[in-house]
Specification:
Layout lengths: L14 E4 L14 E4 H27 L4 H9 L5 H16 L5 H33 L6 H13 L5 H14 L7 H20 L14 H12 L1 H9 L3 H24 L11 H15 L12 H27 L7 H31 L26 E4 L5
Antiparallel strand pairs: 1-3, 2-3
Helix pairs in contact: 1-2, 1-3, 1-12, 1-13, 3-8, 4-5, 4-6, 4-12, 7-8, 10-11, 12-13
Amino acid sequence: MSLSMDCYSDSFSRLATTNLKQNNSTSLEGKIVTDHLFVNNVRFLSMAAVIGLHTISGYGTVLNRNSMPQIFYYLIGPLKFGTIGFFLAAGFLFGERVDQTSPLRYFLRRLRNVFLPWCVWLSLWCSRRFFIDLSQGRQIDLPYVIDLYKVRALASAYWFVPNLIIALAILLICRRFLHDVRIGLVFLAATFFYSANIYGHWIAVVHSKAVFGFIFYLWLGAWSAWHFPDVERFIAKISAPIMIGLTLTALGFAIAESRLLMALGSVDPVNTLRLSNQIYSLMFVLAILKLKHAMWPRFVDVRKHTYGLYLLHTIVLGFFCLKLQPILLPLGAAPWWIIGTVTLLLIPALFASVYGISLLLVRILLRFPMLRWMVGIQTRKQPIKAERSPQFALVTVPRQP
């Protein structure tokens, strides 16, 4: 997923699937805009997985039962592809666009469309906590404010944006060498270091503090964009049953490693950078590449809604968890089968509520041109030149007046 949601047109036109040959795009009144089907599939499924993952985690935190994490690993495991999926999708779009403008201009655009909305929503989220604490008579001083911002920026879902911005800055600094596979191997070595650190504990273990842990996947996404025909040919050689079998096998190893880390007393047994989870995430994204149809419902505009969903779902989920806490706390003393039944009923309902309300709020913000920037959408229409049209792209045809 590219967290930078570029607004290619103010009205969302119907998308028609077409097979386009490499560097063979046609022109309709000079206004064709290409959009990658598999990138949108990755972004939609990754965002749904992230919201589902945080819903399960939030529910488990509210329930506060020691035996629940063992159940959660089986629920969380299949959803752990989301973060790496986002970096791969962001890298793919980075690879297509980075040569179209200067590095400084590209980076400033990312700061405006990604980092600025992130700062605003983070501040609104923290402000709510300040008002609650003030109403309870707690003194608000500078160290408390700094600690709260640090926790919510680096130990919540909001950690992704600072990590992405740093990774983009590093790739832009190394722009001249990005086509060399050797620099990819350097980034991969950094990723493997964080994987080993899960067991070695040389530095902070949690993946949200792995500042250099995801650069490789951003680079790999860009490399895939530069060699997309080769990637497609490779995927085409793998049959769907084999791809599904490999993906499920990788998922099994990922869950097994989580249980091993739990037995070892790890502070983050579901760390995204577990080697087994990295393999599973890659296999899942490769499986998505084989899909030739859209996976998202018609009421979701992937490019316009995804970043807003990311920014808002944490705040919405926090509200729900606060309201559910008095109801769920007594459930912690119930037999395991009652807890399991209630969990299987409540988590889908909670996910649907969080996703639905977050989407509704995003759509409301998009109705006001002056507020669109708050969900990463540019307020002014800017023409986008289609430089390349990989196979299985989606073409947006402007509506005639």
